[in-house]
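Final report, Chapter 2: Outcomes

The project's central promise was a pipeline that accepts a single protein chain and returns its three-dimensional structure in a standardized token representation, suitable for archiving and comparison. That pipeline is now operational. To close this chapter, we reproduce one record exactly as it appears in the project archive, with the input sequence first and the structure output second.
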Amino acid sequence: MRKYFYILLSIFLVSLTGCEGGGSASVPSSVAKLSVFYFAANDSNPGLAEAVFTIEERLDTGLVWNKDSMLFGTRLDSVVPKFSFAATPSAAYLHMKDTFIALSGYDTLDFNVRPIYLTIRSGDRSTIKTYEIRATVHQADPDLYTWDVLTPQIYEVEDSEQKVVELDDSFVLIKSNGFALRAYQSEDGAEWLDLGSPTGLPAGTKVRQMISDGKTLYYGQDNKIYTSTDAVTWTAHTVNYPVVTMLMYWNNLIWALVENNGYELAWWEDEALALSGMRPQGSFPVSDFGTVVFQSASLRERAMIIGGYADNGESLNTRWNFEYSTHPMPKGEYRMEEFSIDRPKFTRLTGISVIWYNNRLMMFGGVDEKMSYLGREILISEDEGLNWTKADSTKNQLPEVYRARQKQTAIVRGNYIYLFGGQDADISYSDVYRGYLNSIGWNSNN
């Protein structure tokens, strides 16, 4: 058992630190007030220097506490507290239960002991003020990702593909077994409602090509764009260019790849497709690619389309980067670049999911050109898609019960990452996992 301070010390202040104003040696003050509290820096315990303490004056016992908890792993068993007072007191001491420690400014104390109080007696001995001191340290590793299973199965296992999108304040899953479609809805990813079979969509609908702007769902095939506000009833709109595939919702626009004497990107506007002028000058995916939209460090709207299959069935290692610049004004300009041309060291991938989280790109799942599953490892890019590395598996890895797969859906909502379903060589999944970085969303109450 750790030995605390069991010796009763004389309650007499021999030396004080940082006294200011309000009294002097010749005219004792009636003020008993703490003005500054902190921990002395310690090179072997760097978290101590990060602590900023707030002093709350209350009618009875005041409170001294650090709003932002100290770094995970910071030790409180041997720290030197430092004090400054509004006026020179006649006595000041720390106490826990029946143990009293007169202040010298060099005491090494154990702040794991609770509660700890500081009592100050004014210079003229007329006033006594007591403060409770609370020092808190984060109890969770800030760099650790934590994962939970929200539901092991939304629907009975069958050979199917599915896509999850956000619609209003809910998640919507639409699945296809090759013959029939089915839609499900959830507010939290744990409890799901069967919405029934969608109507108005064409035969051969590829559910993984559906996209959402948060209020409406979109699907494109041939010379039609299909829309729905409830995932069940769909309306067809005839458009001016054949749709090859739907791409993404980016910069407040719905984007598609269309056929116009070759491939060209277009956006949906006023129930028509407007050509962007961006024409891929190389292999461009038409299925099973990953998309992600985010804002770059330069505050420009960015999007990436990664991997997938080309129209000839070739699996791709491409990383198409799209950027919107507000210059030239007033309409701005869209640009595209294929990162793999200058940085070709990248595996051919299909069936991946990519998100923007904690100011970096994160990639989940997928298979390579030999249909080998990438496992539970997560790939990350800290330079906005130029280079990719494996995440630290001790801090950032999916749980062991999560089987390697492709064609899952990854969505960021608030501070959480949601992973939905997917499939491997043996089974299609309809499970839901939720993960988060411990330090995301930490506040003064943590």
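Archive annotation: The two ends are 28 Å apart (CA to CA).
This record, like all others produced under the grant, will remain available to the consortium after the project formally closes.
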